TrEMBL record:
GO terms under biological process: purine nucleotide biosynthetic process
Keyword ATP-binding: yes
Pfam short name (any one): ATP-grasp
Organism of provenance: Candidatus Jeotgalibaca merdavium
SUPFAM superfamilies: Glutathione synthetase ATP-binding domain-like, PreATP-grasp domain
Alphabetical list of InterPro entries matching this protein: ATP-grasp, ATP-grasp_carboxylate-amine, ATP_grasp_subdomain_1, PreATP-grasp_dom_sf, PurT/PurK_preATP-grasp
Pathway in which the depicted protein is active: Purine metabolism
PROSITE patterns, alphabetized: ATP_GRASP
Requisite cofactors: Mn(2+); Mg(2+)
GO MF annotation terms: ATP binding; metal ion binding
PANTHER family hit by this protein: PHOSPHORIBOSYLAMINOIMIDAZOLE CARBOXYLASE, PURINE BIOSYNTHESIS PROTEIN 6/7, PUR6/7
Protein name: ATP-grasp domain-containing protein
Amino acid sequence: MAKTRLPGQRIGIIGSGMTAYSLLLEAKRMGYHSILLTDKPDQQVAKLADQVMAGSLMETEKLIDLANQSDVLVFESDQVDTEPLASVKGYLPMPQLSDMLSITQDRLIEKVFLESLNINVTPYATITSLEDLQEAVKSIGFPCVLKAIRVEANQIPNMVLYSEEDFYHAERMLKTGSLLLESWVAFDKELTMTAAVDADGQVSLFPLVEKVVGDGKLLAVHAPARVSNDVNQAVQMMAHAVAGGMALVGLVTIELFMTPSGMLYVKRVGVNPQEANHFLSESCAFSQYEALIRLVCHLPLPELTPQRAVTIRYLYREQLDVFKEHFPLHPEWKVTFYPSDNEKANKAIGYVVAQVDHIEDFDRKWEWE
């Protein structure tokens, strides 16, 4: 039986991004002692930790030192090097770490894994040369998307190919290594569902949510998603299958495309908290970060049934002045801003959450749009 870790014990957190920031806040609220391993000890995030260890996140010696001072370890991002983490697992439990974690870091392995579960993925081909690309587009067609196979924090950007005239740019991408070519899916909605997996392998599902994306940015999230009961049940079956296949303790998320005809394609799998799940603290009365801490500490989860419909709008720097004009007029808005030193180009600086009584209210326009 898994050992329960109670408030007062030490949670070692690897990384100092936005997920680490929220995990530190939740750990402090729940009464845990936090130890943060960060390569950016001067950031605001580090100030929330009870103890800070400065150093490389992937240096085995530093990880072992963190393990020796902690009761359980968590990592904030699934874009981690699993090899040094695996070497530390013998010193201390790391419930999130799974041999199957590598599937989320390799787009080709991920697709093969999903296909083994009889889950739809977009048509794809492995590309190692310009000749491969020329042959693949004969079946995949235009437009199509060329991606790096490895999922990394500083990976090369995806490229949309509209015709053979774009092959010149693709040839430059090929110099970086093997690539993945995917068919472009004309979709009606982008959907996300997260599963919480405990130490006994029991799976609990968060509500299905609908994402609104534009110009490569996450603009809004509606929860629950505006889909039929059949679609919701189909996604639940996929989430159960993927979470069961991952064999880890923690959070597993599937992101999907839904076509106008209702066909579902899984876009990607993630094993860390997701930006689209900020609605939980308002809709389900607890956050995804509390859920992750409860899971790795082997504590029971609260009921995941949503209490009210919620809409989230993400804030970007260019919207800030207009937002400030309207914020005093909307006492129902709950606003969260990220630490200023974590701001990145084309990334949200915060978000606004509003509860609504009816799903139809999702269609209303916010005043700054």
